[in-house]
Write a structure and sequence with these properties.
Layout: H1 2-9, H2 19-30, H3 37-49, H4 61-94, H5 98-101, H6 107-115, H7 127-134, H8 145-156, H9 165-198
Helix pairs in contact: 2-3, 4-9, 7-8
Length: about 200
């Protein structure tokens, strides 16, 4: 891209040749699958001379911003999926019954993982006590009482691992923080992209 924009600024036309065409065409010269810079350059020059090329479309201004933003969003989505998978693996080890109550990582599920990630954290506590705890999470106003009760019931007979819990708490806290951070970054990016589209 650096070269492409430089050439465009100086009025020098740029074309691109399909690498697959280069690979097939160079074997026609000597019937050998050899590869070196001089041979490739000659094949590319011949393809360009014969008009077997593509003219790249360089993006500018808003279009360029939209392309960069879309690429960034895709990267953030992939990272968010990876973090979510890590949370699922964590719960499968320490609280496998968690997903019998929650279907996805909504606000209530994240709040539970933030404040009471292990089944032992719910032992001896009432629904009302836990609701007050979960309301401490940002944006959490009305946790679902029925789900909390169901979670308490399943936690009593959990088959989750009970060793290494100190570092398990540290890990899940880090994962929840990163998941929320990615949610916020994606939402902010969506707002920026929407604003850019509306200016066109």
């Amino acid at each position: 891209l650096n070269l492409a924009y430089f050439l465009e600024e100086h009025g020098i036309p740029l074309v691109m040749v399909n690498p697959a065409h280069v690979c097939r065409s160079k074997e026609l010269d000597d019937n050998l699958p050899t590869k070196h810079d001089a041979k490739d350059a000659l094949v590319i020059a011949r393809l360009a001379k014969d008009g077997r090329f593509l003219v790249p479309r360089l993006l500018h201004e808003i279009e360029a911003d939209l392309r960069v933003g879309s690429t960034l969003k895709e990267k953030l989505r992939k990272e968010q999926t990876a973090v979510k998978n890590a949370i699922v693996r964590w719960t499968d080890r320490y609280f496998p019954e968690f997903w019998t109550v929650f279907r996805d990582l909504g606000k209530t599920a994240l709040s539970v993982l933030e404040w009471t990630p292990l089944p032992a954290d719910m032992a001896g506590r009432t629904v009302e006590e836990l609701l007050e705890v979960y309301r401490q999470s940002k944006g959490m106003k009305c946790p679902q009482k029925a789900k909390i009760q169901a979670l308490i019931n399943t936690a009593k007979d959990s088959i989750g691992v009970t060793e290494g819990t100190a570092m398990a708490r540290f890990e899940i806290a880090a994962l929840v923080r990163r998941y929320r951070q990615l949610e916020a970054e994606i939402a902010a990016l969506d707002a920026e992209l929407k604003a850019l589209v509306q200016t066109t």
